[in-house]
Amino acid sequence: MRRIVFLLVLVSSVAAAQRPRARDLGISPLIGGTPGALDAITDVKGVEVGSVTLITGDPGPLKVGTGPVRTGVTIVHPRGKTSSDPVFGAWFTLNGNGEMTGTTWLQEGGFLEGPIGITNTHSVGVVRDAILQWQVGKPGMQPWGLPVVAETYDGGLNDINGFHVKAEHAIAALDGAKGGVVPAEGAVGGGTGMVCEGFKGGIGTASRTLPAAQGGYTVGVLVQCNFGSMRDMRVAGVPVGAELGDLAACIAGDVPAGSPRRKCGSPPAGADAQETEQGSIIVIVATDAPMVPHQLKRIATRVALGVGRTGGTGGNGSGDIFVAFSTANAGAAAPHDTARVTMMSNDAISPLFSATVQATEEAILNAMLAADTMTGANNLRVFGLPSARVVEILKRSGRLR
Question: Which of 145, 182, 216, 400 is deepest in the core (most CB within 10 A)?
Fold first, then answer.
C-alpha cells in the first residue's frame, strides 16, 4: 500500500486563508460584534498556537497500529512559549463525556500554570507527559506541573487505537507555536480527524474586540470542533444543515452489512435517519480583560451559549469542556505574601459575555469552513462544508445580501 505522510508544524496565515472564513463571506456581521484584526485567539497579545498534523496512509480498511492515520496535537501558550508566568483561569463542563486533565488544581488554585494541549481521546496521556518533559527541560520554567490537556474522539477517520501521537509531536507543537498570525484551521493538529455537525470539523478560531467605551478588551476563542448533528446545524440562526443532507458522511467503497452509512454516490437517507447529537467540543477562551478566576468561570459558562447557537445541545455522548484565562495581572502568582491584582467590575462584564458567545459561534463555523473533505479509516468519507452553498442558503433566507 502506498503511504502518504504529512507532518505539519503549524502556523501560517497563508495556509489559513486558503478557504474563505466567516468574515470573508460576510457572515461575521450576522453573528454580531467586532472581530479583532486577525479574528483569532492570537489577537490577545502574548497568546501563541502551534499544531502538528499527522496524516499517514491511503483510505481503506483499518489496520490497528498501521492506519490510516488522521490525527495530531494542538498547543496554546497563554503568554507565549518563553513565559513561565501563570495566568488566572477557570473551566466549565456542559456535558462531561470527555476529558480535560489538570482541572482539579485549576479550580482549586485559580491559576493556569502552563500550556494547554488538545489531541484525540487516546493520546491525552502522552501529550500531558510531553508537556511536563518540555517544561522541566527549560531553565526558568516551573519544575513540576499538572498540565491541562483535553480531547475529542477521532476514531471514525483515524486509527485511534494505534496511538500514533508521540511525545516528539507534542514537543514540536510546543516549540513551533506562534503568535500574531491566524492559527491554521480545519483538519489540522488535534482537529485533523474530527467531524463537526455532520461535516469535516477540526480547529477553528475567532475573536471579538470591545469598543473603547467598554474597555477596548479582546476576547479570543479557539475550538476543537467534533460535536453535533447536520440536522441541527445553524449558521447565523439559519438551519443550513437541514438543506445539505446530500453531503451526509458515506462509505467510499463497499458498505459493510448492518452499517448505518450509505455508499458514496447513493441517495442520502431522510432527515430522520441523520445522526443524532454526539461527539465533543473543546473550547479555549483568552482575554486581556483583568478578570479573576470566579469571573473567568462565568466567561467559560457562556461558551455553551455559542455552542447552542450553532445547533449543539450537549448530548449524552458529547464531551463539551471549556477553559478560560486572562493575560492581565502579570506576576500575580509570584511567590510573595500578598499580590495586588486588578479586577474589572461585575457591572462591566456583560459585553465580554456577548463577545465570548459571538467568538465561539464564529470559531465553530471557521473550523468547518476551513476543513476539506477527508476519507480515512474503513473508507469513511466526511465532506467539507461548501461555503458557496452556505452563502446561497443565507441569501435565500434573507439573512445575507
Answer: 182
